[in-house]
Amino acid sequence: MKVRESGMPEEARWAGFFDGEAAIGRLLGATVHGDVLEFGCGYGSFTVPAARRTSGVVTALDIEPAMIERVRGKAASLGLRNIRAELRDFIADGSGVAAASQAHAMIFNLLHLAQPLPLLREAHRALRDGGVLSVMHWRSDIPTPRGPPLAIRPTPQQCRQWLEEAGFHGIESVDLQNGCPFHFGLVGRR
């Protein structure tokens, strides 16, 4: 089941909306000790920077075969052996990773789906105790050059409430202004 369509642009245009390295640096920090789970990897804009920051494997999930092939190609060309890109409908079938196995999970630009709680609960299930979930989404208070319609974009407050309902605590806002002027970020702990 696809997320309500937000119209993924061509990769060059997509990359022009944010600095993936800067965003990952702010959301993940310098180093992640363990595995990372990415829901909806798209072109790998965040997959590659995450793989460079983790001691573990980045499991990058997407429902689109072309996106998975693109990420696999990037990983191979960059010599990043710690990226495992998998074709998966994680909304319908879950992430496929073991419970409490991940140090970090990333949900970027996906929480405009009709029912976000099951996805957030799956992230919570996959994270180990003390694991961290990073959330980034298009801002709902201003028009942006891309993204889903403003009417279906969640606010930071809605996302914070959903994270709490899914079992996350210690939820903090992360300033993404320099790297992502059209996005907001949140980090929650399991």
UniProtKB/TrEMBL annotation:
GO terms for biological process: methylation. Residues 36-131 form the Methyltransferase domain. Keywords: Methyltransferase, Transferase. The keyword Ion transport does not apply. GO terms for molecular function: methyltransferase activity. This is Class I SAM-dependent methyltransferase. It comes from Rhodanobacter glycinis. The lineage of its organism: Bacteria, Pseudomonadati, Pseudomonadota, Gammaproteobacteria, Lysobacterales.
